[in-house]
Sequence to fold (266 residues):
Amino acid sequence: MTRTLAALMTLLATGIAGAAEPKVEIVGHRGASFDAPENTVAAIKLAWEQKADASEFDIYLTKDGKLVVIHDATTKRTAGTDLKVADSTLKELRELDAGKWKGAKWAGEKLPTLDEMLATVPDGKRVFIEVKCGPEAVPEMDRVIKASKLKPEQTCVIAFNADVIAATKRACPDLQSLWLVSLSGKKPKTAEELIAKAKEIKADGLDLSATPAVLDAAFGKKVKDAGLKLYVWTVDDVELAKKMIAAGAESITTNKPGWLREQLAK
Ligand code: G3P
Ligand code: CA
Fold:
């Protein structure tokens, strides 16, 4: 084989490898929640099977001070019975079925605890823990994360409530924490306003709604130039994902992690 031919083959191989591995981090939203019941152990395990780099899920504090994984403040939508999580004990919540609403094959899935979700995380993968209640959840979250097998870089905390991010950074400054903001309202905050608030609460970055009318390359550059990370949610459309990557997103949360990775590799 001539040297020129060998160089050409290396170039082709690199190109193919590059195409097969999108540089952006792909994060399962509530697990692989298009295919499995959101925020369950089955959904997060499916996200790992679908080769997600990370998986997001939501947590609330129960009446007896435990952290349970659920998106809504009540159990009605995903478990049928209408219990307010903050007014229920973990034992009461664990009696519910959080899988069968998605299909008979998922019947028997429980509302998971935070430690059960962390126990599923393979080496080299990470989780996004979204705190849906207030800063009162932070001490127990910190305890459970520290008691888990995970390295600090395998957990990331996200929250819309800026006080939660500030409390997380005070309790565990080494834990990556990003402030969640929706840009989809009538008067979205400017990049400058978001950067100022993110700095005030010592956030490591912004986790923004994928709103291309607002989040363009100029917006993304301001965030990055301020030394902040830029992540986006929730993207199930490949063209939108490409726009967000062009705007500077380093991490994309999606309900379909396996599918999105395949589409971006084309
Ligand atoms: O990843 C952030 C995203 O999960 C925020 O929205 O309502 O799905 O929790 P939501
Ligand atoms: Ca969430």
